[in-house]
Amino acid sequence: MISATSLSLRISAIFAGLIGIAWGVSEFSALRQESIIKKIADRILVGDVYKYDILLKQASLVAPTQRPEPCHPLTVRSAAVIRLRLAEISDNAALGLAPVRTNLAVDAIRQSLACSPADPFFWLALYALEPSAPLNYLTASYRLGPNEGWIALKRNPVAFANFDELPEDLRRIVVQEFLRIVKMTSFDDAIKIFVGPAWDNRELILSQMDRVPLRQRQLFQAALTSAGYDVLVPGTRFDGPL
Predict the structure, then answer these.
(1) pTM, 2 dp
(2) Per-position pLDDT tens, the chain of length 242
(3) What's the rounded Cα separation, in Å, for the pair 234 and 242?
(4) Which among 194, 154, 150, 196 is positioned nearest to 175, based on CA atoms?
């Protein structure tokens, strides 16, 4: 006959086992969700396009995890990337008002930075999204990620759009970053920046193009000409007397 003590111990062991199983299932589910949202966020950052309903679903699933404590860097960052992408989508009534989406993105980005403050992309995003953002957000982006090419492609047009507000040392960094973009042979992006937000500063840029290897300058010149812009990139063709 089983004593009351033995029965109590067995019941306790069963409960402990059930709790362990429940915890394992919950942990597996959380890890699986983290893996899914990270994969989506990574693909967004390289330019993949997702249907807005998929983004909304993922954003709603991870919203409860966006708490200051405990900090889950991958999940919080991925959620912020998705919120940022939702804020960038225009002309879609199903997503709600643009200002609301922007505020949600800003909140998510701030939570991610509170968790992982050394993120140059999110300091850039915060600077771009907030109308009265302090300049030190942009400065932090350059300081923390000075040579990350994919960030440069997003940061350089933002910096040139605010070029007049930048101090002299940061202006030099912005121009040097554009030259690196040309060196990277990212000519479609370079053209968009050059004839867009950097157009008023084209003479300053051209005056420093001798720092770019000749082959890349020639290709940049060809891309400009093909796009219909009558701009001479120094050293790419003869422009003096014989």
Answers:
(1) 0.78
(2) 556 566 565 665 555 454 544 434 444 344 555 678 788 888 878 777 777 777 777 777 665 444 545 677 888 899 999 899 888 887 777 777 888 889 999 999 999 999 999 999 999 999 999 988 999 999 999 999 999 999 999 999 999 999 999 999 999 999 999 999 999 999 999 999 999 999 999 999 999 999 999 999 999 999 999 999 999 999 887 444 33
(3) 17
(4) 194
